[in-house]
Amino acid sequence: MKKQTLFPVLLAALLYVSTTETASAQTAMPAAKSATASTGKDLAASAALSPNHTTLLKALQAAGLADKAKGAGPYTVFAPDNAAFDKLPAGTVATLLQPANKKKLAGLLSYHVVSGSVMAADLKDGQVIKTVQGESLTVGVQGGTVTLKDAKGGTATVTQADIKTTNGVVHSIDTVLMPAK
To answer: Does residue 145 lie within any of the structural domains?
Structure first.
């Protein structure tokens, strides 16, 4: 699917920027107060640079999305970091990475992508946004912190926001979002 192929491209921008940020910038920060960063580079060329998103990169490869990192945008990616994947029940990541689960993994990853270039300041408390996977996320904004509620009631917090890319924007999150299907 064309929409699913852009996820790795946008993720690459996050990965590039997160390796160039200071340690304090990588800690949780209110999304509305975060500085806007821009890679100014082709997103695919920046992949695999972040030590904080290696699990996501493995997932992209296992889902067959890593090599399909070209496409038109704009899109917004909510990119789970390694700690987000570590929160999943034991064995979940290993199971998802198996070839037999490629389609399920691709669906999970595309649940983290929405159409359009959405900055943190554009998100409103209670707003419902549709993912390219087809399901929705509910936005929460409290005191400048942006959260996303998934279909199963889980909540992810944006820890690094507004990373502008040539094809959209990336927000790093602390929890893997779970679709209903």
So the answer is: no
Boundaries of domain holding 109? 2-120+159-173
**pTM to 2 decimal places:** 0.79
Structure tokens at 141: 């904004």
pLDDT (tens digit per residue) in 61-102: 888 876 554 566 788 889 899 999 999 999 999 999 999 999
CATH of the domain at 47: 2.30.180
The β-bridge partners of 147 are 140, 157
Counted domains in the chain:
1
| 127 vs 149: CA distance, rounded Å | 10
What does the pLDDT look like over 116-175, one tens digit per residue? Answer: 999 999 999 999 999 999 999 999 999 989 999 999 999 999 999 988 777 778 889 999
CB atoms closer than 10 angstroms to residue 38: 13
Q: What is the pLDDT of residue 85?
A: 96
**What gap in Å lies between CA 81 and CA 156, rounded to an integer?**
11
Residue 149 domain-assigned?
Answer: no
Burial of 106 from C-beta contacts in 10 A (0-12 / 13-18 / 19+): buried
- The reported pLDDT for the residue numbered 67 is 56
Give a yes or no: residue 133 inside a domain: no
Residue 142 belongs to some domain of the structure: no
